[in-house]
Specification:
Radius of gyration: 23 Å
Shape: elongated
Order of helices and strands: HHH
Distance between the termini: 60 Å
Number of helices: 3
Number of strands: 0
Low-confidence stretches: none
Largest sheet: none
């Protein structure tokens, strides 16, 4: 059974290695790499922000001396998380828009527009 599992794992790894890279898929590698780096930075920023929100909430809860103070800590944590999520969503939507622009096929003579697009005059 272990040999079978190992064979499946190796086969799936080999299949992933054969998948096309960004350049092979028709996307400009330098720009895609730049977007990837931006995506990583946004995600790391998000992790740091969420950790900070949780640390502040933990300190607030630790210092709470009554149920009202505890509820205030929880409310503040929810508000901070919601505000962060809204800001993060806006940034990620903008980055996704840039990704989509890079993926759109180039328009020109003999080229067919992408699905859902109307031909440009």
């Amino acid at each position: 059974m272990w040999k079978w599992l190992l064979a499946v794992l190796l086969a799936s790894t080999a299949a992933m290695a054969d998948s096309p890279t960004a350049g092979e898929a028709g996307m400009p590698p330098p720009k895609m790499q730049e977007r990837f780096n931006q995506h990583k930075l946004l995600e790391l920023e998000g992790h740091r922000t969420r950790i900070q929100i949780l640390q502040e909430a933990a300190a607030c809860i630790q210092a709470a001396t009554n149920p009202q103070a505890f509820r205030a800590c929880e409310r503040h944590e929810r508000e901070a998380s919601a505000a962060y999520q809204n800001q993060h969503r806006v940034k990620m939507d903008a980055l996704r828009g840039e990704y989509r622009q890079l993926r759109e096929p180039m328009q020109g003579p003999g080229r067919v527009p992408a699905e859902g697009q109307s031909p440009k005059p």
